[in-house]
Amino acid sequence: MLNIALFGPPGAGKGTQSKKIIEKYYLSYIATGDLLRQEIAEGSELGVEAKAIIDKGGLVSDDMIVQLIEKHISTDNDSNGILFDGFPRTVVQAYILEGLLLRMGSQLSCMLALDVPNEELIRRMLERSKTSGRADDNLEVIEYRLKEYENKTKPVAEFYRERDKYFPINGIGTVDDIFDRLTTAIDQTLDKQWMNVVLLGPPGSGKGTQGRELAKRHNLVYISTGSLLRKEISNNTEIGDRVKPFMERGEIVPDEIAIRLIEREIQLHPNAKGFIFKGFPRTIVQAYILDGLLMRLNSSVNMVIELKVPTLECFKRLASRGKTDKSRTYDRDPELIVNRLEEYENRTSLVKNYYKKQGIFQKADGTGTTHQVSEALNYMIREGFKTIR
Ligand code: AP5
Ligand code: MG
Q: Per the structure, how many domains does the chain have?
């Protein structure tokens, strides 16, 4: 997800720029100030309590803000993330936001802070007061809001600076100039984001061929549990000895072994921009654990692609690989091929559902030529990079 906090003193242009940002990046929008004004207009209990504070220019309590956010945040739409305007405004709220996003398996991508001197802020808000109808747009209250900002809100910038997520943006200039500066910073953050792709598909669907190629093209690290396991076997390691019988029967290996190999492989690539996981996760347990492993790296699975190839075609491909020097032991026995195809069907449907629920599951036609399939996958990944979750 692309989650942005737009930060800055009252009148800095947060609301103005927000409208443009959410349109360009397809984000949901949470503006605590707007939500509070809405509560006030509705005359809700929360609104009544907030009104007195807002009219004076103070900050409402963190407790009220949590209730408000809980009420309005929604995850069941297909936006690419959330833009927060005027939140977090205290260090406590910054912690709250962390927890909130963590619960959604996500985190804040960046905080963009609009920098505007006080004289200009006052000038803008007094100008706005002619039409805004906002009770807090008068000189006395504006001055108090600026003071509250200085004392309580500014320390939030430090919170994000320490986490390398703070980007100061010059907030003087035309609306379009400032928007350009903001989008440059957002695009830089997107470039820095990881891209983790899970490539699913029945045995023989071409995951290996495509996965390696995709990894090369997009500068990602290719991780195939199958290859890792075969390496363990050929090196006669302890893991190799344990997994050999499973592999020979065409069964999947115990979760804890697959997981250990993946963990080790992730650690071997500390500078990776992301991974292509081929043939993993194969069980729902592995899917949960992969999430945990990636979360430790402040990352997550961004995209899951299943290569669709009819079962009969997979069977033919595996049987003919069995006649080449790339043959695996289980390619030569039709019964084992059937076992593996069945095992895929049985186990992977849960994994697919797990990712479907997160809205990151896609299918790709795996029946064309290698080149055609590769082009289709490339396109999906390029699009994915644009709207990384
Ligand atoms: P909120 O509604 O968030 O107000 P604010 O932070 O004071 O900010 P504004 O909405 O006044 O300014 P803005 O930065 O959005 O600027 P805008 O785009 O409108 O909060 C209101 C109150 O609610 C708070 O005081 C507090 O009491 C409470 N509250 C809200 N969230 C809270 C939280 N998390 N915790 C606790 N309390 C909370 O632009 C301003 C004007 O300038 C406009 O007229 C615009 O047209 C103009 N303008 C914009 N850009 C430019 C430009 N480049 N050049 C010239 N003019 C420009
Ligand atoms: Mg605003």
A: 2
